[in-house]
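Lab meeting minutes (informal)
Scribe: AK
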Amino acid sequence: MDNVENASFSDNDFEQLEAWLQRRHSGILDIVTLEGFLTAILIGPNTISPMLWLPKVWGKGKPRFKDLEELNRFVALVMGLYNEIAGCFEQDPAAFAPSFYERPLNDKTVIIVDEWCEGFIKGIRVDREGWKPLKRERPDLLKPMELFGTRAGWRKLEAGGEAAMHATWSVRIAPAVREIYAYWLPYRRAVQAIPENAIRH
């Protein structure tokens, strides 16, 4: 997300949110997973209320906060990241690039994509019904995230040779996400164009 020019979500905000997530024992436990989750929520077919997806972020049971101020601060941080991702797709979807973890290995840098993909799959599951047309018509677009973000996918990676599969499929994640955004865009625009009174009737 470094390519997103958005001053509303600062490096300090990023670090605060990451620290809070890492203290959790359920729900979403790191900010890369959260970014994948929010990306799926944002680019999917339907506008999902934060009241429906925020509980998925903090996990089972009531969210534990010292007071209302801390709760409000956490929600503001999550929505700040949400708005940053939304801003990228609105301004320049072709520039979108997921945030992945990196680790050094034998004088090389290995890109870790699993957490982001797991988050993306979690986001899809918030609106399973809504995503069915894409799963039916363009399953190829979901395959990179399913490989790295599901147990069934991990078994396929292992069976196909993890290093070779990673090299082939990890580079397809960002282009697939951009295509998914484009796939749902006409649908989202059509829904947004329906007058409110028409929805009531």
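Next up, CB showed the second protein from the same session:
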Amino acid sequence: MSFFGKSFIFDGKSSEEYNLYISSSDGENARLTGAGDIELITQKVFRRNSPYLLGVTPSPVLQFDIEITSPLEIMADEMGYIMSWIFGQTEYKKLQIVQEDMYNFYYNCFITSPKVIKVGNKTIGFSGTVICDKPF
């Protein structure tokens, strides 16, 4: 997902405490399913042209990939703290992107599927998947 802001707050801690920022290595625009999509639940009955509408269900929860990097090398002792802060959660935590138009919004989420990003045998960041509790 593309954001204009580079800093974020997760579980009440600012990413700037660890010199971490949201980044993207692919450089492409993100295309996501819009919020508010629904799935129709219908039943087809013999000798009836149109199906019965039994109800609707909301779209699946919002999910997107995230990359978190540092301009400096992340040392091994710091890496443990960062990994447990970002990926070691057992309940939904608030993820807020520090960006003018998202000031009052947050994602109630888990960040899963941790991967370490290395360049030249130096750890510079992490990537993962943000899984929210709602479809928007």
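CB comment: The longest helix spans residues 76-86.
No objections, moving on.
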